[in-house]
Amino acid sequence: MSQTEGYNFAYLDEQTKRMIRRAILKGVAIPGYQVPFGGREMPLPHGWGTGGMQVTASVIGADDRLKVIDQGADDTTNAVSIRRFFARTAGVETTERTVEASLIQTRHRIPETPLSNDQIIIYQVPVSEPLRFIEPRETETRKMHALREYGAMQVKLYEDVARFGHIATSYDYPVLVNDRYMMSPSPIPKFDNPKMDRMPALQLFGAGFEKRIYAVPPYTSVKSLDFDDHPFEVQQWQESCAICGSDHSFLDEVITDDNGSKIYVCSDTDYCAGRVAASEEPQQ
Amino acid sequence: MNEVQSWQDIEPLLSVRNLTKFYSPGKGCGDVSFDLYPGEVLGIVGESGSGKSTLLNSLSNRLRPDSGEILYNSEQFGELNLYAAEESERRILMRSEWGIVHQHARDGLRMNVSAGANIGERLMAVGERHYGDIRQRALQWLEAVEIEAGRIDDKPSQFSGGMQQRLQIARNLVTHPRLIFMDEPTGGLDVSVQARLLDLLRNLVANLGLSVIIVTHDLAVARLLAHRLMVMRRGEVVESGLTDQVLDDPQHPYTQLLVSSILQN
What we know:
The complex is a heterodimer of chains A (284) and B (265).
Chain A lengths: L13 H16 L5 E2 L13 H10 L5 E6 L6 H13 L3 E2 L8 E5 L12 E5 L13 H9 L6 H12 L10 E3 L3 E3 L9 H4 L5 E6 L4 E5 L5 E3 L26 E5 L6 E5 L2 H12 L4
Parallel strand pairs in A: 2-3, 2-4, 4-5, 5-8
Antiparallel strand pairs in A: 1-9, 6-7, 6-10, 8-9, 11-12
Helix pairs in contact in A: 1-2
Chain B lengths: L13 E11 L2 E10 L4 E6 L5 H8 L7 E8 L3 E4 L5 H9 L2 E4 L3 H4 L6 H11 L5 H14 L16 H13 L5 E5 L7 H18 L2 E5 L3 H7 L2 E6 L2 E7 H6 L4 H8 L5
Parallel strand pairs in B: 3-8, 3-9, 6-7, 7-8
Antiparallel strand pairs in B: 1-2, 1-4, 4-5, 9-10
Helix pairs in contact in B: 4-5, 4-6, 5-6
């Protein structure tokens, strides 16, 4: 595939990419710290993944193979349009297979297939500040990060337990990175939180609205907050995937008719398809 | 026989030397010095604009003074020169050894989380991570400030003004602070609610051995709570002494005016 004429490689100009790369390097050097950057206008609205796209545009090279997922799926609007955007402006190869991708831009999921050290995963982040819930002032949240004052973050969990009897926060579940910075993992389900801990791949986060970049280098500790008497737990399902039969992946509930019938299917479409293919192979 | 320790032998908890903060000439407070001893309640009275709140804000680490020193005898850090100390130390003080009760409860409470979370926040801020313990302590403190245990999961916005004020007090006292700053704690409450709150405050102060600096323009509140009084006018302390002495035998003309302006029954 060749790239669209009249645009620089991967849409952004080289000066902007340099500026974003500097922010990324700083973010990698201080795991979990939110680095401000001069966010650019992208040809789609804020909230559609502009932060992640700017990070992707800055790290992508002609040899890279890009995978884009939205809620785990490769075939939803956001994923399709961003994948096509980079196919056109950078002329890079794209893939839907996790193992083949060198770059993965994601909205709301981490692939079920474990990532390797030669991959980079880029998260689209809507609200980068995990303390925003409890403290609306930016000056104050920065100070809280600087002085490592994270007690207030527990208030969110306290409210959950008081109201529901367990920690009901199920996505964007706050984590402590490298025992230092409190970080929003972006709105991934807490099911995916354990995958972030000591992940071999480099994790980059871009928030287009708030113009912040942060990062978790490979093999860095990522701990989910909890109480001593209410430890961190991930979601579990009674059902298994209606397509591939998986009983250990993150399942979406799909309504199939007007009578409330429903099935559960894997949210990671590549993982699901891979399992189906593997089970069919021996029979052929 | 136990030797009785006289107050002169005890180190002051807070020593203030020549504290000055002026926004413009005559606006602010100037050259204030005093010592506050453990278990003592100091009242600061004066008319609106006399610099009471400026003084309180400077004392409580919320407004850096132009000049002067505040020395605090901390349990954790020893003798501390407040504004020369590390900000991290000062902020730890603010949530452990100190408490601030604001005039408007919404300034001191988190209105979007439950009463229990409001009380528990300071515990979690000093490292408590056991939900059951936090909950238990919150219930104890609700009882101590006469709020029904059943309201623990209600938000402060559903509370009456008096209850909000009591919740604010519970939120501050849960970490067993040694020094409490209060800015017009009874302002905006009706008389019967005021009386109940004052009664509660007086008991808590006596039982917990708290040191308190309380700003008020209500001399009745000052007489009920304060051991010592400072009278301020135009940014200066014009008179100070034991509460009864100042109120019953005022020396400065302004204090005389203030005392005589109270309705007598």
